[in-house]
Amino acid sequence: MSLLQELRRRNVFRVGVAYVLAAWVLLQVVDFVLGMISAPEWILRVFFLAAAAGLPLVLIFSWVFEVTPEGIKRESQIDRTQSITPQTGRKLDRAIIGILVVAVALLLLDRFVDRPGPDSTGAMATAQVEPGQVGLAGGELKAVDVAPAAAGPPSIAVLPFVNMSADPQNEYFSDGVAEEILNALARIPGLKVTARTSAFTYKGSKAGVAQIAKELGVNHILEGSVRKEGNQVRVTAQLIEAGNSFHMWSETYDRELTNIFAIQDEIAQAIAAAMKVELLPAAGNSNLTGTTNLEAYEYYLQGVSQWHIRTGASLQTALGLFEKAAEIDPSFARAHAYQALTWAILADYTDFPMPEAFSNARKAAETALALDPQSIEAATALINTTNDLRQGVEYARQAIALNPGFATTHQWYATALVSLGDFDGAEREYRIAQELDPRSRINLDNLALMYIYRGDLEAAERTALQVEAIAPDWPQGQERLFMIYLLRGDREQAERAGNRLAAVLGRKHNATPVYLDLLFNPERKAAAVAEIAAYPLDQIASPDNPALIEAYDVTLLLAVAGANHEALETLEWSRRNDLISSWGFMRTVRIVPDFVCSPEVQAFYASTDLPPLVEPYPCPP
Fold first, then answer.
1. Could you give all domains of the chain from N- to C-terminal order, each with its CATH number?
2. What is the CA radius of gyration of the chain?
């Protein structure tokens, strides 16, 4: 009998096939469980090596031993006329069929059912590309037929990728990978991409894909996970059609960390192919991120994470990180662009001099645009680098022409239009920004402020309550509600909002009663005017400062109270300190015509170089 025939007779081949299939099923289950508990990647590798090491042992065992009615015996001790290997073979055939059924079930489960992951809205699994999907193999894009997209123009939200690393401090990295993919997709003409601010509010949410898509107004969702360990990284991503939860594309990438840039590009390219849109490359760069230096990239991602926190301290930290990234890789345009964005808003959150901040923002933006003329972040930063309102509007229009999909551009354009008294145009731009970034607290707060200036306190309250629902502990949102209730004459609500504002600001002394006296207590009004006018206007962040509202609101509130002299003094202080966001807008506010139309205020604005309003203020003849 030949060796091949003897291998068949002893069922060595059947045992080998059964073992391989059983090991594959076991590894799938182990991979699923390890993903659920965020276990280190090396554990799965140990299981794989153990399974591989067991194969030759099992084959040797099946050659040397045989199953008999009396138990397992050495094959050499058995009379071949009494051997039951044919019956054992049939049992192994049935076992192989059973394992194949389980394997097919796992494949179907992997394709059609989301796997829940820690703090994930949907499952992140080691998914395989199936027929009818779009996948990547060997770094090359292979496009095949996909299900038709949901109704409406193509749109997508990139949810924060789940940090599956053992170190929770790596969350900035998983967030950054998701944001870089989002930035790449935002370069696609005709594709609506929800801004990071809104998409990332679903971090840790248990809401389903359909609900998230409905709330964000998109028809596709991209979700994923990142596991970073040493010099290795695993990125898993899947594109889901929101209308029917169909997984249009999914892939897992196991690479060295230095290949993270290629992974991000490949994911963006695959999504573009799946949605049948064209991805535009970043100008002059070998990848969509704009750098191949891993150290610069890590500093940049850490900076972006701090930038989105939007406090004075976090912005200063972010600025230092962006500067490090640009120092390591001077050609990294996005590091310069985010420096520009940070400088453009730094004076709004700190006591840093605005003229110097504007100058630094302009320099960083120009550097970024020289490296990447398509940098929408740098083009947008220019809007906030000038006190020339017409120049700011022109910068905004140029940025929108460059890329109409960046929500911040529309928001800052709207603010510039408010300063020119173009409320209708401003509302249109705020609404566009809201469509792109529906859960942006800053955009909604700016919209509420515009409604106040226009005199629509009902719309202002409705919008400010939306802000509170999104960010209940955000001081600026609480300030907006406090002002609305004061201006509306609702003492009870104003007191409640003032106390809340003092708490979130961490004030050592709650000055809410002083503001209430200003408008609701005639006997204490004069004292309240003097006290509020004496509060430091340039130390709003200090817990020792009793003031609850910023300079522009101080001017408005004093004007409403009829303290025109003190209101004008705060206006002049804002101008001396180059706070055009405080003094430049007051001439548009419809709810204080007696103040705006007074000869003193008219003379004040006549002495400035502000351009004329789009519509003249309706002062009485």
1. 3-112 (no CATH), 135-286 (3.40.50.10610)
2. 32
